[in-house]
Amino acid sequence: MPEDGEFYGKHGEPRKYDPTFKGPIQNRGCTDIVCCILFIIAILAYIAVGILAWSQGDPRKVIYPTDSRGQFCGQAGTPLENKRMLFYFNIMKCASPMVLLEFQCPTTQMCVEKCPEKFMTLLKAYTSRTDFDYYKQFCKEGVTSSMGVPEILKLGLCPAMLTPSKPFTRRCFPALGQTGGVITVGNNSHFDDGSGNMRDAKDLVDGVKNATVVIEARQVAMKIFEDYTQSWYWILIGLVIAMLTSLLFIVLLRFLAGIMVWIMIALVILVIAYGIFHCYMEYAALKGEPGSDVTLQQLGFQTDFTVYLQIRQTWLAFMIILAIMEVIIILLLIFLRKRICIAVALIKEASRAIGHVMSSLFYPLFTFLLLAMVIAYWAVTAVFLSTSNEPIYKVFNETACDHSRATCDPANYTTSLMKKECPQSECLFAFYGGETVYHKYLIGLQFYNVFLFFWCANFVTALGQMTLAGAFASYYWAFVKPDDMPAFPVFSSLGRSLRYHTGSLAFGSLILSIIQIIRVLLEYLDHKLKGAENKCTKFLLCCLKCCFWCLEKCIKFLNRNAYIMVAIYGKNFCTSARDAFFLLMRNLIRVAVLDKVTDFLLFLGKLLIVGLVGIFAFFFFSGRVKAFENTAPNLHYYWVPILTVVVGSYLIAHGFFSVYAMCVDTLFLCFLEDLERNDGSAERPYLMPESLRKVLNKKNKNQPAE
């Protein structure tokens, strides 16, 4: 028909019948060599960056507290090995607003074995040898009984007073309490500040508050870490359950694809319905409870996330989200009910293909291993880069001083001009930084680390997609299955991909990585401009973020289909991407209806597994079921293992179902080419399975009419 010719002219010519074509071409050459060389150079440079970071970095800076000299408290193999606690000479100086800007208290800090346990002033301790020996634990070296108190305080060798303290994240903070509404420290509401003045215990509050702001995030991180140490065993069990459930689901799909799809749909609807019911029951149970009507906006951010579960609005939000999901799924099922039969036939064929290529089910483990190596290398390099700065010391002074906050050298500060002009000033460790060429380009190295992480991660994912595509394409185009298939289809396809198409894999993953790094930069800009009131800028950023999100999704879709064509025909990336795009455009209705419905059904399968395992984890770790009360570990945040199990379950389910999804996509493209190459005659029979031919009303002409 003329209109068909015009249509095909716009979207390329349909495939011609080729009697010699029997699946993935064996006689092929290397593709996209320039990009392959570029990728190898980038990897070598990445290794060089890692070596440079490891030679300059020091992760101890984020592990151990640091004293005023930049030394690490509690570091093994040093004189401070047994001095694990950081002690502040005057915690009240931490009440300065500069603490929140510079993340350092303008007071001497030193490493000690244990925190002070009693009230004591230097004047009082000096009169007793026993007390003075105890006091000297919290003084700098060089303090002797022959020195007078004024001289010791003038040289800043000892604090003027000690207050009872407790260790908190390996730092000594005053043991504050409350008696009858009055702030106390060591059961006393007043204390001697060492200068003969009596001070209220509440004066310590601001200093403690500012000092703890700096490490509040670390406190949460430590609690989360403790929760992991208490629950890792049960988390592993939950992930094993998710893996076994996913494997069982895949096996059942192999033999009962049609039944399993409908059971899966019903179970997903029931699981979400139960979630709505549970949220409603929690919402109703909190009615009339004190504080339950507080809004999320009024509550603000809380480090103890269990607080949110005591608010009715939280459960109302969960209930609305689940209800919207339920309605969307039901409406999609109603409108797509006729197309689900075709999708089921395709899933059945994918099950048969996986049955002939069983090793494909274990290939995600290889992908996970490679991704784990990429993530580990990126994380270690990032830590070493971020800790490769040098200690910077600055002048801290309580009174006005021209040199305040200026850089100084603690080695000769006592004899320096700055000390003479500001006698009461001190040269203290401030932060880690540097002014060398290496430190100037440190941001660039961090950026390169992130970019290569994206590139390598996308390359590993692309390698998995091309390997599986080659294996499943060899199944589809085999005239007699499995006799015409390679002995080891996955290994054969992996070898072809690495030997001939490393450049094509690098090319596709490079395009995707550039888009992802732009998205990261946009998020960074958005974070920096959060306080800006310019609505035009906010709108522009929002539009850009949305556009690049859509672009990333499109590129992922095109890359995936391009890799399938590369695996089959062995052409370069651009040619394969064009051929795949035109093939899909010539069959746009089938793509929109058949392929996407299949993806939707597989997504429901992942949702079902995550839902089942997530509900089990919730009842176990939250202690809502009496049978698990004594078995479940005692945690700070029970949502930590639940969230870990849910995310891990999704990744595991995604790993197994990604094999199915890749199989479906590969078979779908092969199926479209089969319709173009063949016409069902004896000379050109369709290679698609009988189940698909029945659904599409296609049949080979040598096949007897039914």
From TrEMBL:
Protein name as catalogued: Uncharacterized protein
